[in-house]
Design the sequence.
């Protein structure tokens, strides 16, 4: 009962803070309000992507430099949003500016493969231990094409994904994900039609309108960090399953690391049943280690998907893996795109991966990430806030649940009211964050220790205010 009363008290306090800070945020951002009123006339919700929306309107940015961004009202922020994990190089890094300038002066698009495209492909294969790869233009395209290759190579149709995971907005994988689920009343849905003979595996309705009903049968859901569920499913239905796709570290509900031995066992089960193992490293690739989760956890998938940090702030995506699977491209499995591997993104990406994101950069990410997480952890403990911190390289987060998350069902135990209060509080004090409690902070090579201390101090003040 005491815990319940404390939860009620801190939630009420958070709601009060959120109301006060939202009023202040609206007072500070009249230019964003005006731009939103203009934007909704031409774009649903006034944004280019639904992830960019906020209530009653988002903060619209005007420019960025180094570790800073400025909104359309001229307010300055230290940027921990990082373009949803893209801007690990920071803003206007000289090496990236030079690369983009070279592309602009020599040709940004030919729809013909250039030497710099080949060089970037070689670097991506080296970093992530891939035999072959292909370029795309987003994480969604990467997972879509990887699934098609897996299905073509195996001759099977069904795919397995983790409960609550997000792999882009392609129809085949919009099942059991956070985006749009709340709007449809499906956020807390962790069940559906059970798979015969398979414990803890099920199919369910999609968390988006517009997904053809014919697809509902072919996407199977299992919990993260539950290898027994995968073994049970594969034992009874393995011959139907083309691929298992997963984030090796779940990064759309905060930050959930794999249990010791979990990825190794998933790898073994996929091998045993002829199922292609696909790692979605759109967020973890080039952020949590030089070679992403593949390097950090030492498990090699059959295929892996990348985007975000690979392009030095430009639009890019990629997928690749074993040549035996990738060889179906050219044998009837479609994989194309007019802008794939364009010289603008390729030049920026090559500069980012070879000149900026060096081994020294990852050592620095580890230092700053630990500094930030430890500082936030101390603030949480001193104020008695029900929360915890996690960090891996350039990525990290505060999740409003006492213990670390093990899977999506743990995420449903977090207190969203606490994040809803923290967001306007931090933004009003010059710390720019992602607008959702399922996201993480992103560090860049241009962040300094002073930037980290500013985050810690501001967050510490929030915790004390929340504690009352």
Sequence:
């Amino acid at each position: 009962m005491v815990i319940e009363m404390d939860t009620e008290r801190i939630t009420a306090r958070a709601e009060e803070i959120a109301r006060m800070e939202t009023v202040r945020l609206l007072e500070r951002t009249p230019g964003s309000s005006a731009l939103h009123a203009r934007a909704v006339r031409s774009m649903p919700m006034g944004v280019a992507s639904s992830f960019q929306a906020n209530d009653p309107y988002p903060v619209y940015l005007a420019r960025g430099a180094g570790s800073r961004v400025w909104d359309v009202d001229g307010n300055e922020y230290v940027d921990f949003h990082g373009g949803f994990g893209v801007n690990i190089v920071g803003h206007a890094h000289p090496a990236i500016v030079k690369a983009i300038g070279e592309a602009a002066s020599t040709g940004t698009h030919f729809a013909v493969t250039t030497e710099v495209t080949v060089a970037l492909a070689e670097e991506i294969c080296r970093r992530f231990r891939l035999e072959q790869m292909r370029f795309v233009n987003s994480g969604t395209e990467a997972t879509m094409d990887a699934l098609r290759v897996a299905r073509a190579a195996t001759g099977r149709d069904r795919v397995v994904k983790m409960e609550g995971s997000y792999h882009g907005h392609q129809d085949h994988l919009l099942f059991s994900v956070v985006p749009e689920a709340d709007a449809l009343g499906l956020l807390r849905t962790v069940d559906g039609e059970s798979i015969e003979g398979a414990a803890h595996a099920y199919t369910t309705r999609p968390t988006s309108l517009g997904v053809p009903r014919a697809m509902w049968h072919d996407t199977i859901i299992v919990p993260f960090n539950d290898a027994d569920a995968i073994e049970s499913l594969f034992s009874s239905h393995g011959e139907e399953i083309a691929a298992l796709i997963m984030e090796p570290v779940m990064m759309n509900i905060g930050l959930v690391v794999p249990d010791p031995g979990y990825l190794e066992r998933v790898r073994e089960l996929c091998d045993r049943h002829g199922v292609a193992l696909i790692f979605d490293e759109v967020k973890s690739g080039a952020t949590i280690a030089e070679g992403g989760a593949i390097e950090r956890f030492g498990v090699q998938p059959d295929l892996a998907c990348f985007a975000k940090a690979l392009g030095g702030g430009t639009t890019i995506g990629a997928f690749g893996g074993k040549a035996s699977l990738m060889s179906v491209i050219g044998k009837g499995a479609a994989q194309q795109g007019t802008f794939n591997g364009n010289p603008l993104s390729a030049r920026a990406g090559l500069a980012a991966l070879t000149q900026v994101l060096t081994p020294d950069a990852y050592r620095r990410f580890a230092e700053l990430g630990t500094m930030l997480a430890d500082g936030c952890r101390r603030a949480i403990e001193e104020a008695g806030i029900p929360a915890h911190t996690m960090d891996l390289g350039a990525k990290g987060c505060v999740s409003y649940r006492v213990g670390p998350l093990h899977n999506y069902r743990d995420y449903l135990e977090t207190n969203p009211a606490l994040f809803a209060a923290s967001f306007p509080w931090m933004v009003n004090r010059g710390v720019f964050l992602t607008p959702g409690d399922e996201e993480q902070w992103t560090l860049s090579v241009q962040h300094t220790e002073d930037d980290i201390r500013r985050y810690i101090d501001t967050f510490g003040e929030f915790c004390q205010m929340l504690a009352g």
The first helix runs from residue 2 to 28.
